[in-house]
Amino acid sequence: MNYEDYFAAIMTNINNSGFPVIYPEPITKSTMIPTRDNVNLATTIYTPTAIGQFPTIVQRGCYAEQAPLNDLLGKEFAKRGLAYVFQFCRGIGPSEGVWEPKVHERSDGKDLVD
């Protein structure tokens, strides 16, 4: 399956999810969030264009190539009333630090949520 077909399949599933689009294009904010040992991790936050609190999906990932997919998910979730936060792991994409599988995930994830 090529990338376009993959995205189309995801959009079909999202559109058939029972969560209708209720907001226009979301607010998107990219920022660097520091960890307890001062490594800045690239984080993108997608929120609906309304004031209030929203259920939030938090995801971290180690595949920079998935940035377009993360962007699609963030926008589509936010248009349906969910906030979406995506953070690249250390050393991945624009995040600082060195990628060491399964070494910092727990503490970095806790730092993101706290």
From TrEMBL:
Database matches in InterPro entries: AB_hydrolase_fold, Xaa-Pro-like_dom
GO MF annotation terms: hydrolase activity
Family annotation (Pfam families): Peptidase_S15
Domain Xaa-Pro dipeptidyl-peptidase-like positions: 37-114
The protein's name: Putative esterase [Lactobacillus casei subsp. casei ATCC 393]
Annotated organism of origin: Lactiplantibacillus mudanjiangensis
